[in-house]
Amino acid sequence: VKAAVFASGTGSNFQAIIEQEIENKLACDIALLVCDKPGATVINIAEDYDIPTFVFNPKNYAAKKDYEQEVVKRLQIMNVKWIFLAGYMRIIGPDLLHVYENKIVNLHPSMLPAFPGKDAIGQAFEAGVKTTGVTVHYVDAGIDTGPIIEQKSVHVFPDDTKDTLQKRIQRVEHQLYPRVINQLIKQERGVFS
Ligand code: GRF
């Protein structure tokens, strides 16, 4: 089954997913990277691994529906069934959401519903919590509000900086996301193991 990853940034999670695929440990085929930031590092990673990309600049479109319709067209041509967001910094609009209902999944660096939105790691660090974490959830029309699929907690230690906390969270993300992706795809196939 084919999937697309949507990312806007450095792409460490995209890379973690691709590396699982290369080791034949991913239950789907990452057929496309969709990126809304020309020049983002994640594009170089896709090129290094020979993954096709669709890179666009939202400023070149009159409205969200215009680029989302273009994205849907490209996904459908490639027969993409799942969308995994990995640092895609845009709200998914109705044009995309309705075509891919219950098939769009996001990764967020906190224990939702705590610390939704931007800079969740910074928010948790500033709040002084002792535990934060990582959430994988279905995407709905809100910001980080969809049904939770899986979470993993991460300790915050007294001598942590935002940077050391971020690194610990990323290590958890890189393990958790490919595992949950496999779980979702196997569930869909009816293999409950
Ligand atoms: C991750 O922390 C993810 O949880 C959030 O955006 C970040 C993307 O990081 N949604 P990277 O580009 O995969 O390194």
Strand order of the largest sheet: 3-2-1-4-5-6-7
The percent of residues in helical segments reads 25-40%
The CATH homologous superfamily of the domain at 2-106 and 139-148 and 173-189 is called Formyl transferase, N-terminal domain
Write the CATH architecture name of the domain at 2-106 and 139-148 and 173-189.
Answer: 3-Layer(aba) Sandwich
End-to-end Cα distance: 18 Å
Q: Note the total helix count.
A: 6
The helix/strand order is EHEHEHEHEHEEH
Mean pLDDT: 97
Record field, number of beta strands: 7
Beta-strand level of the residues, as a percent range? 15-25%
What does this protein look like?
The longest helix is centred in the last third of the chain and has 28 residues, at 162-189. The protein has a domain at 2-106 and 139-148 and 173-189: Formyl transferase, N-terminal domain (Rossmann fold), CATH 3.40.50.170. Helix 1 crosses helix 6. The chain has helices at residues 12-22, 41-48, 64-77, 94-99, 120-127, 162-189, and strands at residues 2-6, 29-35, 53-55, 80-85, 104-108, 131-138, 148-155. It has a 7-stranded mixed beta sheet with strand order 3-2-1-4-5-6-7, sandwiched between helices. By secondary structure, it is an alpha/beta fold. It is built from 6 helices and 7 strands. 39% of the residues lie in helices and 22% in strands. The model has no long low-confidence stretch (mean pLDDT 97). Strand 4, helix 4 and strand 5 form a beta-alpha-beta unit. 5-O-phosphono-beta-D-ribofuranosylamine (GRF) binds next to helix 1 and strand 5. 5-O-phosphono-beta-D-ribofuranosylamine binds at residues 7, 9-14, 86-87, 107-109, 173. It catalyses: N(1)-(5-phospho-beta-D-ribosyl)glycinamide + (6R)-10-formyltetrahydrofolate = N(2)-formyl-N(1)-(5-phospho-beta-D-ribosyl)glycinamide + (6S)-5,6,7,8-tetrahydrofolate + H(+). Catalyzes the transfer of a formyl group from 10-formyltetrahydrofolate to 5-phospho-ribosyl-glycinamide (GAR), producing 5-phospho-ribosyl-N-formylglycinamide (FGAR) and tetrahydrofolate. InterPro entries: Formyl_transf_N (IPR002376), Formyl_transf_N_sf (IPR036477), GART (IPR004607), GART_AS (IPR001555). The active site is at residue 108. This is Phosphoribosylglycinamide formyltransferase.
